[in-house]
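It is time I had a proper look at our fold encoding. Can you supply me with one protein entry, sequence and fold together? It will help me judge whether the discrete encoding reads sensibly. Leave the record below and I will have a look:
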Amino acid sequence: MFSMKNFLKTIRDSRGMTQEQLAESLGTSQATICKIENGQQRLNDVLIKKIVEILKCSADELLFGIKPENAADEREKMLLDYFRNSTEKGKDLLLQTGDTVPKLQDKQITKEVC
């Protein structure tokens, strides 16, 4: 169960959809949508999936406010933080891992990697 307090309202408003319209699409009441947006009611995985489909957004945007175009930026920041907080040996290991990733993605795993 997740709370969507502010993100649901923001996304719904940006799509020009009213609480009533979203409620009708979900087969629920406007009062339920209001409670969800105010953090008084939580949603289960099934409703999250339906909302994502109806509002044409990602689950990350709905749950965490992270838009798809910002998701890569957040991951890049995480990697940079890992690198900056590592010892010299840790930095070398991160760089070696970075060299290995393309090989793994292309499924060109050699005996060296294994």
